[in-house]
Amino acid sequence: MTKRKYINNASRRSFLKNIGVFPFLKYTPLLSGTILGSALSSSASADCNQQQSLVCVFLLGGADSYNFVVPGGSAYNEYATTRGNMAVSRENLLSSNDAVQGAFGFNKRLPGLHDLYQNERLAVVSNVGNLIRPTTKSDFNASKSLPQSLFAHDAQQKLWQTGSGNLADSFGWGGSIAQRITECNSSSTIATSISTAGSNKWLNNLQQNYISLNPNADIVQMRGLSPSSSTKNTLEALLNESKAEQGSFFKQQVAHAITRADNTANGLSDAIRDNPVADFSPTGRLEQQLHLVARMISAREQLNMGKQIFFVGLGGWDTHSNQNERLVPLMTELNSALTSFQASIDRMGKADNVTTFTASDFGRTLTSNGDGTDHGWGGHSLVMGGAVKGGQIYGGFPSFAASNNPDDAGDDDNFAGRIIPTTAVAQLGATLADWMGITRAEQEVMLPNLANFNQKNLGFMK
Fold first, then answer.
1. Is 274 helix (H, G, I), strand (E, B) or coil?
2. Mean pLDDT across the stretch 177-193?
3. 422 vs 11, more confident
């Protein structure tokens, strides 16, 4: 009796765990495309001759983005009065201008992002958030068509990432884009979408085929399948036997999944080793993640990837207390990471086909709680890259008035300081999906609320 006969069903789980396959199985589709059939829609509209990478930078905790970008002129006085001790002083603002909104300022902690805006390579999408339909103050007070569990972290993160108002929806719009462009990577062993910030809803799709990578850990070959392993020949024989075995669908699929995972590990390890991106020296958490993303983009050709979707994240933005002090290192890290990443992409000559945008659970209240701000609703997103129509604000600044504020999620006698979004996540997502070559019909499937908005494309992409 050969040794392999002892790897029976009872010990199969232990066997898979010991060779290190479970982390890859988690993000690898177990069922083949032929079994899922038409459920795995891939887009015929995407131009596979055009390489593209889309990068979502999620600011976990609810970033106070109304202090990233601040209105100027007479609107500043209203802003400063309402925000009180949370307001950014005029001397701490970097002067900018928008053809419609007029003068405004970037926080001085964001000098690199300010420069990108001035050079028309970064756009501001103003007052964006989770919406089911265009929503007014009276709609809010009547609880008319509101997203579920407003102002709650977990719920609003999920709804931002799924582009839905319903918590039962579990597919992310980033994953839906990836699913529809997967044909452009048909010769690659690497999944189209990759997270450097662990599990998330934005990359979820029917195939569950995104990869999660740790930017601080090397990618190593599977134990037992490396060329130097004494068990390599035995394990390969077992896998081939399982793939060929008739009448055992599960064994066949697991064997194929292990092979795909091994190919993925080997391909990623080689590509990252061969593309160090030495001109980008990361220090902080976000820079480390974006450095890994830059290496993956540099290796696009080596990996046979036409299109890529990335999710990175930076926590710490839930600033209920000590906000003015806590935002300094957070914004400094955000500015350094995004500008260093963009500079690296520029040096690769890939600026026109890499687009990066920021997102967060929600914005924060205009009002101070004494030492910080509380959970809000709308907030600003930043979009950068060579394909962005930068140097503009898309969507108007909300009202910063503390009385009779038409944008406030509260009644006139009880100012809440929670700003109702005037731009929906669905519209932001559709604009980026347009750039990625996704048809409007497909967009309305992946972004179920998009049909409720007259303007689908916000116009910030070339």
1. helix
2. 93
3. 422
**Sequence-ordered list of residues with C-beta below 8 angstroms from that of 310, at least 6 positions apart, any chain:** 53, 54, 55, 56, 193, 194, 195, 196, 293, 296
Q: Which residue has the higher pLDDT, 43 or 364?
A: 364
Q: How far apart are CA 366 and CA 401, in angstroms?
A: 9
85-89, 90-94, 147-151, 230-234: segment of lowest average pLDDT:
230-234
Model pTM score? 0.89
- Distance between CA atoms of 215 and 222, rounded to whole angstroms? 18
DSSP state of 28: S
Euclidean distance between CA atoms 42 and 170, whole angstroms: 19
Q: Which of 139, 155, 183 is nearest to 436 (CA)?
A: 183
Going by the DSSP 8-state scheme, the letter that residue 229 receives in this structure is: -
Count of CB atoms within 10 A of residue 282's CB? 21
**Cα distance between residue 209 and residue 25, in whole Å:** 9
What is the distance between the alpha carbons of residues 377 and 62, in angstroms, rounded to a whole number? 9
Q: Residue 54 carries which DSSP code? A: E
> Positive or negative CA dihedral for 252, 254, 259, 263?
positive
Backbone φ, ψ for residue 420 (5° rounding): -70, 125
DSSP-based three-state secondary structure for 341: helix
Dist CA 330 CA 318 (whole Å): 11
Q: What is the dihedral of CA 263, 266, 267, 271, to 10 degrees?
A: 170
Please write the tens of the pLDDT for every residue from 209-249.
Answer: 799 999 998 877 666 656 666 677 777 777 787 778 776 77
End-to-end CA distance of the chain, in Å? Answer: 66
H or E element at residue 394: strand 393-394
Residue 194 φ/ψ, nearest 5 degrees: -140, 135
Going by C-alpha positions, the residue among 10, 23, 3 that lies closest to residue 262 is 23
The continuous run of DSSP H or E covering 96 comes out as strand 93-98
Residue range 384-412, pLDDT digits in tens: 999 999 999 999 999 999 999 999 998 87
Q: How far is residue 123's CA from residue 121's CA, in Å, rounded to a whole number?
A: 7
Question: Model confidence at 105, in pLDDT bands (50, 70, 90)?
Answer: very high
Cross-strand partners of 129? 424
**How is the chain split into domains, by residue range?**
3-37+73-130+144-452
Rg of the chain, C-alpha, whole Å: 24
What tokens does 125 get?
Answer: 């999408």
- Return the closest-CA partner of residue 442 out of 453, 430, 454: 430
Place of tokens 């130097």: 228
pLDDT at 266 exceeding the cut of 60: yes
Between these two residues, 76 and 257, which has the higher pLDDT value? Answer: 76
Q: How far apart are CA 327 and CA 336, in angstroms?
A: 14
